[in-house]
Amino acid sequence: MSTAVPAPATPAGTLPMVEVRAVHKSFGALEVLRGIDLQVRTGEVAVVLGPSGSGKSTLLRTINHLEKVDSGRISVDGALVGYRRSGDKLYELREREILKQRTHIGFVFQNFNLFPHLTVLDNITEAPLAALRRPRKDVLATARALLDRVGLADKADAYPRQLSGGQQQRVAIARALALEPKLLLFDEPTSALDPELVGEVLAVIKDLARQGTTMIVVTHEIGFAREVADTVVFMDGGRIVEQGPPGQVLDHPRHERTKSFLSKVL
Ligand code: ADP
Ligand code: MG
């Protein structure tokens, strides 16, 4: 595959890319996040597991400020998400500033969310043409290189409806990468796919992991977690019940709830 897209320079190390501290979030009377603490270092892959309704999507959405937290703090690459600090005061960022901050965080959804009326190439170039002050020629070249990287170089002019689910999701990944994010968030990227298409999407995500992309991946694919995760995080009832290396959490879970969940998905 193409080498035209540079891999992030920082190897897995000690710098925290994501820091979530004491985050609480309720929807009305329902407390969905009940004190979440999570750190993901630069170059690491965190895989988040947990039953439906445990707060996984909400956690991802707070990290790019699609949901506002009620209390606690989140920072990405050292910058507070959604806020600016001035002295000892915090000010909420304006919509424009929030959008700018969000361009550094790629989000891949379960249902691809491609623009149906745009070609594959236009899906990928739309945001970077608007957000990155780059010559159109360069944006196009990068988009083509990304398509090559996800194995879809020949689909540039196709429309989403002409692609399989797996192909659409690979376009969605290329689109997320086009903004050169510091961090990629995946919310059940293979859950909407027919089983035979899951592998091609996971292969692309594995390739990104090998190149040192920092990612948080919500998935029920335990084999993928075992192979790719640096950290496995198990959530239940709005809390992180247990987290650690895959060999620990998946093979020697300490908590009953983790054991019971794993016995159902394995
Ligand atoms: P998961 O991704 O682990 O399945 P979610 O984070 O989507 O869990 O949801 C956690 C809980 O929060 C669920 O009970 C869900 O119905 C509720 N919830 C999520 N988003 C909203 C919202 N915007 N308004 C009200 N309730 C919500
Ligand atoms: Mg979810």
Automatic annotation (TrEMBL):
Transmembrane segments: none annotated. Residues 18-262 form the ABC transporter domain. Its main location: membrane. This is Amino acid ABC transporter ATP-binding protein. It comes from Streptomyces celluloflavus. It is a peripheral membrane protein. The lineage of its organism: Bacteria, Bacillati, Actinomycetota, Actinomycetes, Kitasatosporales. Belongs to the ABC transporter superfamily. GO terms for molecular function: ATP binding. It comes from the Bacteria. Keywords: Amino-acid transport, ATP-binding, Cell membrane, Membrane, Nucleotide-binding, Transport. Gene3D superfamilies: P-loop containing nucleotide triphosphate hydrolases (3.40.50.300). It is found in: Cell membrane.
